[in-house]
Amino acid sequence: MQKKTAYSFPDEILEHVFSFIHSGKDRNAASVVCKSWYEIERWCRRKIFVGNCYAVSPTMVIRRFPDIRSIELKGKPHFADFNLVPDGWGGYVLPWISEMAGAYPWLEEIRLKRMVVTDESLELVAKSFTNLQVLVLFSCEGFSTDGLAAIAASCKNLRELDLRDSEVDDLSGHWLNHFPDTYTSLVSLNISCLGSDDVSFSALERLVGRCPNLRRLLLNREVPLDKIANLLSRAPQLIEFGTGTYAAELRSDVYSNLAEAFCNCKELKCLSGFWDAVPAYLPVIYSVCSRLTSLNLSYAPIQNPDLTKLVSQCPSLQRMLVLDYIEDSGLEVLASSCKDLQELRVFPSDPFGEEPNVSLTEKGLVAVSSGCPKLQSVLYFCRQMSNAALVTIAQNCPNFTRFRLCLLDPKIADYRTLQPLDVGFGAIVEHCKDLRRLSLSGLLTDRVFEYIGMHAKKLEMLSVAFAGESDLALHHVLSGCESLRKLEIMNCPFGDKALLANAAKLETMRSLWMSSCSVSLGACKMLGQKMPRLNIEVMDEKGPPDSRAESDPVDKLYIYRSVAGPRFDMPPFVWTMDEDFASELS
Amino acid sequence: MSENGEGGGRTRGHMGPIIITPSTTFFSLLILHLTQNPYNFLLFLVMEGGLVLLGGGANGGGSGGSSGFSTNESAMSEASSYLAETELELGLGLSIGGPTGKINKASGRILTAKDFPVPRRASMNGGTPPSVTVSGTKRAADQSVPHDGGSPTATSQVVGWPPIRSYRMNSLVNNNQAKAPRAEEEHKGINEEEEEEEDKAIKDGSKQKKPNENLGHIGFIKVNMDGIRIGRKVDLNAHSSYHSLASALENMFVRSAGAEKQQLTMPSKLLDGSSEFVLTYEDKEGDWMLVGDVPWMMFLTSVRRLRIMKTSEVNGLAPRFHERNRTQRSKLI
After folding, report:
1. Which residues of A are less than 8 Å from B124 in CB distance?
2. Phi-psi region of B182 (alpha: psi -120 to 50; beta: other; left: phi over 0)
3. A305-332 tens-digit pLDDT
4. In the sheet that B50-56 helps form, which strands lie side by side, from edge to edge?
5. Do residues B280 and B307 lie in contact, with contact meaning Cβ atoms separated by under 8 Å?
6. In sequence order, what DSSP letters do the residues of B152-186 get, joined into one string?
């Protein structure tokens, strides 16, 4: 009779309460309180995030959540960004679109990351979701401007079209013409990844001119500098702007037009693009600099002193992306000028050079850590590091949430003591209690993993390469990191033992990637047999695993939890280790 | 982005499978077989915070009770062999790389994979420690050598390192290519001067080589085949000749079309005109050319992408190339 209290609450009230809960985690928690809450919650859930498109099937999602308006899907593993996942691996969005076309006619937002999106998929999207407002294709591939044309023509309510970092086959620049003249709702457009011939400039100008709510415009490299002024003058309300190529012969009319155009953009806060930038045209943005919160110069080959001078004019910067041309000296200026800095990314200008071409060392990062108290997120490529520097950085910035250090020589030791960098990274995980993401590099033994397992309790994503000495390292991580969701490992001497001993842990994580390690085929088969809720995928382009011995190490291993079972769209070089496989071949 | 649809380890999880986490308060027992030795099994008790080895079979270590990973004899020896290799690499690193990772100037040349006695890849910095750490087995060596045992430049880079995304890498290549034509023109001077410059280049491992090396890492380019919807990407870095590139492409596309194992023994048909397909490429200027006309290195500097075209459609290409190809086939590697 105690059940009465739960049921005495009308569904409508519960639904109303749930409408205030937006976070997926909270919604998941609410849904398992009791059956009635599960039912009510699933009917009113509007937004879902599927971190691995193979963890669940579209049918299952649709069955549980009948009225979704916003979906985010991720496909390939993160290391696909670095060419470690061969083409054809998977991550096709078409099955999802096909099923959602019938089930979610009111779908408003589609966000895809690292998925294969074909023109057929885009055409189906255009046809099925008349209310589509947001389409984000982040690091996707497989489509051409024909698919984009279909979207432009049909999606009258489109607000946001973002193709960031995607690979698009350029067939015709005229897809922009397919936006009808009556279309005026564009708010955000990112076409920075498009190649030549992909963008008809006059169509772009007309589009920009008729969309008064346009706030974000990121152009592709092919848009010449002398066209920018005209474009900006049609959209002075922009908050975020990405230039095309930022190089041209210095001409006073172009220069003054540009300066005036930028000056008129009173709300501009974020700048990017700057491909091929030459120092001559940098001063045109000085009028905007004091307001800038985000500046991406990571494609700009400008060097000091021009680079440092520019940075010193931007005291409001919160986010800075730059090439290592900034050098330690420039970072010191950044540290003293930009007290609100939260995120810093420094990329290498010459990653394969034998000798350093710039003077960027650990000192730059130490300076920024010391001068910028709000620093939370770091991605730093450099050629030398010391434990002392890392300890200092850790003590300066206990608020780090993301710390990714990439030493270009992956096994380089502390340059001062010649010791491994265990202690330094240990300090990072010890002091930064909120650390969610960590990438290691440099000479590292099992010890650093011991520290990580001991301290990194909030760590969700760990990337490891060329580190560790034995399975103990992997065991420390798998047994110690309670919040671990994604683990990606390349070229480490980790084998079967830690993996098998922590098999249960793998079900609590989204995925594990191991390539060029020492996990044997036999262990993979065993995991496949024992853990039915994990998909164990072995990747090898040299041939099927049955042609080799059980003890042979597999080339690439991708393990992820799934309630959908093994997938059916695997290419010839991927084998799934499930019960069928093991019994067929052994 | 908040996470929906995914039960985290912390919450009770979504409806569906019960998720075992370290923070749950019951124990799970795993009995595992080590595949190599069927009589060797280890009993593990997975509890909060650690792994306890309770007992084992023939080789099992019986040191249960302490938290932490207790390994048996064979595991220990494996661990120490890993350690030995690491020491070996450390040793190499210290003597050659030096504290700042610079090249040992005294020898005055770029050290490559051939300088190291063990069959490993040199890292991309010629003088710094080798980058492959897989347990030194033959398989690792096989992995690191590209299809036809290519040039030192090709072996000196590990796929996936440094972790820079391809569009960013391509933009760096473009930045450096802007400098390259100038460097090449400098070389084109008088013959004698050229020879001298080349000698100098070899002696001081010089920057004049840089543009080529950077171009050598043009990396992955797209390949499309007529009739196949999804294109692939091929790493030009991994090949040092047209022949190896063509075989790789044949393996990639013929295999994906469903054919079985016979293609491994077939010589490259794409280059000799005997198949119904022809290999073409788009160059810097956007023109489509037949692959095989120019020297390999020159091809690398100008290729943008590849297309395996039906022979019947080749008429669109400049005729003289087509003709030249017939007479110059024998000159190909």
Report:
1. 351-352, 408
2. alpha
3. 999 999 999 999 999 999 999 999 999 9
4. B28-33, B41-47, B50-56
5. yes
6. HHHHT--TT-S---HHHHHHHHHHHHHHHHHHHHH
Q: How far is residue A131's CA from residue A106's CA, in Å, rounded to a whole number?
A: 6
Of A558, A449, A454, A458, which Cα lies nearest the Cα of A493? Answer: A449
For the stretch B105-157, pLDDT in tens is 333 343 443 444 443 333 333 333 333 333 333 333 333 333 333 333 333 56
Burial of A223 (C-beta count, 10 Å sphere; 0-12/13-18/19+)? buried
Give A359 or B183, the one with higher predicted confidence: A359
Structural domains of chain A, ranges and CATH numbers in brackets: 6-44 (1.20.1280.50), 505-585 (no CATH)
Contact B11 A32 (CB under 8 A): yes
Cβ-Cβ contacts under 8 Å, A31 against chain B = 14-15
Question: Taking the CA of residue A268 as centre, how many other CA atoms within 13 Å lie in the half-sphere pointing to its CB?
Answer: 25
Residue B3 CA, distance from chain mean position: 34
Arithmetic mean of pLDDT, A488-499: 95
Rg (chain B; Cα; Å): 27
- A-contacting residues in B 6-45 (Cβ below 8 Å): 6-17, 19-23, 28, 30, 32-36, 44
CA distance A181 to chain B (A): 32
Q: 3-state DSSP call for residue B311?
A: helix
The per-residue pLDDT for range A243-272, each reduced to its tens digit, is 999 999 999 999 999 999 999 999 999 999
Chain A residues with CB under 8 Å of B230 CB are 87-88, 116, 118, 142
Question: SS3 for A93?
Answer: coil
Distance between CA atoms of A163 and A110, rounded to whole angstroms? 12
A196, A471, A490 member nearest B160 (Cβ): A490
Give this complex's ipTM: 0.87
Residues B155 and B173: their CA atoms lie apart, in Å, by: 19
DSSP string, B233-286: EEEGGG-SSHHHHHHHHHHHHHHHTT--GGGGGSPP-TTTT-SSEEEEEEETTS
Residue spans of chain B under pLDDT 70: 1-157, 173-219, 228-231, 254-275, 314-333
Q: What is the pLDDT of residues B255-286, one digit of tens each?
A: 544 443 333 334 455 666 666 778 888 887 77
Q: Which residue type occupies A476?
A: H
Residues of A in contact with B171 (CB under 8 A): 275, 299
pLDDT of residue A358: 92
CB-closest option in B83, B163, B172 to A469: B83
Which string of DSSP letters, residue by residue, matches A270-283?
A: EEE--BT--GGGGG
